[in-house]
Structures are given as structure tokens and as C-alpha cells.
Amino acid sequence: MGIEETTDSRSDSGATGALAEYFGFEEHGTDLRTEILAGVTTFLTMSYIVVVNPSILAQAIDLQGYNASQTQSMLAVVTIIAAAVATLTMAFYANRPFAQAPGLGLNAFFAFTVVGALGIPWQTALAAVVVEGIVFIALTAVGAREYIIKLFPEPVKLAVGTGIGLFLAIIGLEAMGIITGEAGTIVALAQIGQSPVAIVSIVGLFVTFALYARGIPGSIVVGILFTTGLGYGAEWLGLVSGGALTPGSTQATYNIAPVAGAFLSGLGNVEAFSFALVVFTFFFVDFFDTAGTLTGVSQMAGFLDENGNLPDIDRPLMADAVGTTVGGMLGTSTVTTYIESASGVEEGGRTGMTALTVAVLFLLALAFIPIAAAIPMYASHIALVVIGVVMFQNVVDIDWNDITNVVPAGMTILMMPFAFSIAYGIAAGIVSYPVVKLAAGELDDTRPGHWALAAAFVLYFFVRTSGVLQGNV
Questions:
Q1: How confident is the model at residue 392 (pLDDT cuts 50, 70, 90)?
Q2: Which pTM was predicted?
Q3: Which residues cross the membrane (predicted)?
Q4: Which of 129, 230, 315, 393 is the Cys-Cys partner for 94 at CB 3.0 to 4.6 Å?
């Protein structure tokens, strides 16, 4: 009997036993089935990025000789590879159940602010992503995390998520034909009753919200596919003219040569001041978004110590930094840890096996690149509105009873959507923080670093808006 039990135990263990030992299933109170289920859940909740990231970046990355669908399919491949590399690093190096991919907000900053508003070539923007990743790796390696966190005002850090949420929502609503700036006002409701795109988008948006509220895994992906189906169905039934709701002919390609390595040419076209600001902003948003996500998800998983810190946080931060560097080299914007990892943690995921499952599923998603290329922009941008609304939850963490918090937090939140720039929002918050602290007689709450950053951003605002940089970026 004992011999049979030993034999059965060994036969059952095999690869499973090796995984259990490597990831420490017993130590974390989990098993292979739970970890795989958690990984599948996390992947379903964040898989929308395979469609949304290419849709956003394609508006900035102009590839000569390639049409829109080919560009999007290239970027989808790059998105998947970057996500897989970062998440595999998280699995094997950090042994945490956190998934990573190119971040929403960071890709919007890349496309609409850096390339769009600043006029920086997309190759140079990719170079900034790579440099940011390398800086992140270096600072993580020397353990400079605590100093960096203390350097930025707390109300600004807490407001960034909400500001990005508003920024994403405006981008999404405009792409869906729901809001417009062409009605004699800065922003106005579009003539949605006359727009098939807006009508289909609104139906799809509320279906997605309903699925999300029900807690259905993959609700955003289902909503995007449902909206896409409505568009194709309306054209097939002859309710609208051909091409009104679909991207027309689509061509997918797996050749990423036009974007992979493009950052190298970007390094030769650098205007120092603007480039440094772009690198700084990428780093700031990435660092604090990742740190906040890691802390929040770790709290749910019971990973935090008695002081509220995540032990060995440098390891998941390093995974993020490696993912960002590799992603920039391949041709995508900054990689970050996804808050959707919380869905896998809720399913019991506690180790890197959850992340390994997510990474494998990302690689399997390469087979569906042609589908991603056929999804119209209005359908993919539903994800921006849904995630943007969800990100409003962060606003409750701000102490709204303290005016010295209200001003910098409010400026951060307002300036992002209204100036159409994440960087300007962060800068406005950083500039206002020491000013209101001084006025309120709370100078002890400020540090020399606060004043130095504020002065640097005042200088930047002047230089940027006075036309000094015109023609240099």
C-alpha cells in the first residue's frame, strides 16, 4: 500500500511536482489547477490590449508602404511579444502572479502627446521608451525606489490614475463618434442620431458596461467583439453603406521588421530638453503606476508585510523595467503591470505560475492576429472608456479636506484631458504643490526636490509655449 502510494505520488508529480517545487505552491497555499485558472482569468480581463494598443499606436506610427491593417497587425505582434517577455520575467524572476503588457495611458501619451502634440518622430519616441526602461533597470538594481517615491508629492501620485482615466475616456468617446470639438465649443455632444458609428458604439459600450458589472471574465473583449459584430452585421444587412462601420479590406502581417529596432534611428534625432522630459514622464507614470498596482494587488493577495510594503518589490519592478526595454526595442510603448492581475488573485493565484499561464496565452494569441486587424477603431476604443471610468475609483484616496492636496490633485486631473497631455497634468500638479504648501504655512511638508522639479517644469512650460522649441521637435 505504501509502495503504491509512493509510486502514484511520483507519477502524479512529474512536471507538476517540478512546477510546484519551483513556484512554491505549498508555501503559498495553492496548486497547479488554481494557478492555471487564475492565469486564464487574468488573461481574459486584460486581453483587450492586443486590439487596443495597436489601434492607438497606429495613429502615431506611419509605415511607408504598409496600410493601416498591416501596421496594426505588426503592432499586435509586438504587443504580444512584449507582454509575454515581461510576464515571463515576472513569473520566473519575481515569482509573483502579476501580468504585464503595454499600458493604457502610456500608449496614449506616446501617440497623442509625444508624437502628435510635440511632433517628435515615432522612432525617437521609441528611443525614449528604451532609455526609460534602461534607467528603470539601473535605479531598481541600486535600490533607489524609496528615494524616487518620496520625491513626488503624494496628492499628485494619487491623482495620476484619475487624470489618465479622463484622458482615455475622452480619446475613446471621440473615436466612437459620441463627442466632438466641431460644434462651436471646445467639447460637445456629437450628432449621434445621424452617426451609425456613434449608435453602434453606444450600444456596444453599454453592453460592455453590463458585462463588466456582472463580473464576467473577458467582458471588455466580448464587448469589443460584440460591437464589431454589430458593425459588420449592419453593413451585411444593408442598413448602412459599405465601409461605414468596417475597416474595409484587411491584410495581416507577422513581419515586425519595420518597427523592431526603429529606436536606433530615433536616437540620432534627439533634442535634449524635450527628449529628457519625455523620458522623465514615461518613467514617472510607469514607475508609480506599477508601484501602485503592485501594492494594491499584493494587498488583496496578502503579500504585504506589517508595514504595508511588498517584500522584494524590486523583483517585480525589474520585470516591468525589462519588459519596457524589450518592448521599446521591438516597437511598442511602455510596458507596465496590469491592475487586472487582481482578477487572477481573486481566483486564488499566488505564484509565478499564474503569470506563466498568462504569458503562454499571450503567445497563443498570435494565431488570432488577423482578427485583431479586422476590428474597427470605434469598437476597440470602447476599452478606453470602460477602463477610464473604472480608473475614477482612485480619486477616493485623495484627502479632499486638505486644500493643499486639493489644488495639486485637481490640477493634475484637470490638465490631463483639457491639455490633452499626461505630462502637462503631472507638471501642473508638481508646480502647484510647493506653492500652496508655502502659502498655507506648511513649508515643512516640502523638500528641495519638490522645488527643483517645480522650477524645472515652470521653465519647460515657458520654453514649450513660447515657441522656443518650435522646429526643434
A1: confident
A2: 0.83
A3: 36-61, 73-94, 101-120, 126-144, 156-180, 192-213, 220-239, 353-372, 378-396, 408-431, 451-469
A4: 315
